[in-house]
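Lab notebook, bench 4. Continuing the backlog of folding jobs that were queued last week. Each job is logged with the same field layout so the records can be merged later without manual cleanup. Today's entry covers UspA domain-containing protein, a 296-residue chain. Filled in by technician R.K.

JOB TYPE: sequence-to-structure
TARGET: UspA domain-containing protein
LENGTH: 296
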Amino acid sequence: MNTLAGHQDVVAGIDGSEASTAAARWAASVANAVNSRLILAHALPQEGPIYSPAAVMLQSQFLSQIREDGEAIIDAAAAVISAEFPELTIESEIAPGPASTHILESSGTARLIVMGSTGSGALRSRLLGSTALKVANHATCPVTVWRGSAENPGPDQRPVIVGVDGSALSKKAVEYAFRYADQFDAPLIAVHTWQGSSTFREGGAGILIDWEAVEQEESALLAENLAGMADQYPDVPVTRISEPGAAAPVMLKYADDAQLIVVGSHGRSAMAAAVMGSTSQNLLHHAPGPVMICRA
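JOB STATUS: finished
OUTPUT FIELD FOLLOWS
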């Protein structure tokens, strides 16, 4: 493999963990489907302070060893991926850490960044690794945080869930979700939520609202936000779900049978604009499978 960075590549973070290798295999499937290169990115540990000539020699030996270890990690992942996708072009990038900084530098030109939900030594749980969280929080391209079965990382033909709220980033999420579903012959579940009667106190202002009319308006809004993409991808079966409630819990109700959740992430203030919204955070921590965050 050559060590090159390119425009519109799929970038996968690799750290030697089972989760990162499985995430890279998922990324390879996407890269192969869209005819992109796959970049396997690995970050070296940060260098510490040097206090003596002896320390310089020891550190030099240490850095040489960890670079060899990093190359071995990438070579092992590349071998697995090449066996599955022999025509896929795979490149590598090894750079000093921290890992989040290294991967974020790729987001300005990448098509997609893919990371495993846990890193080296992490507990096998739904807790999100700090590197994946930081990358998902700050990348300028879509980021998929992968979680699932390492034996069968996907993609497959199970449904794709997309959150729809009418915002510009939601429209971007809808576009990516339709494109992905079409590429892998998967059905789409479009979920739109709204504030229902349960958010009002009993006997309060909620009794003055025509909830049947609200439900019809929200369903029409969902249909309107899907219309253009549905026309562009007529072969993608679409199920529309419009329900009162918070977005993340409603989407998670359907997540067990889905292969991917796609959402836009945005804030309502200057500070929130740089930090993921509560829906995205909730899904990243609790979804049973991969979550794609569209921030640009």
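OBSERVATION: The CA atoms of residues 32 and 247 lie 32 Å apart.
SIGNED: R.K.
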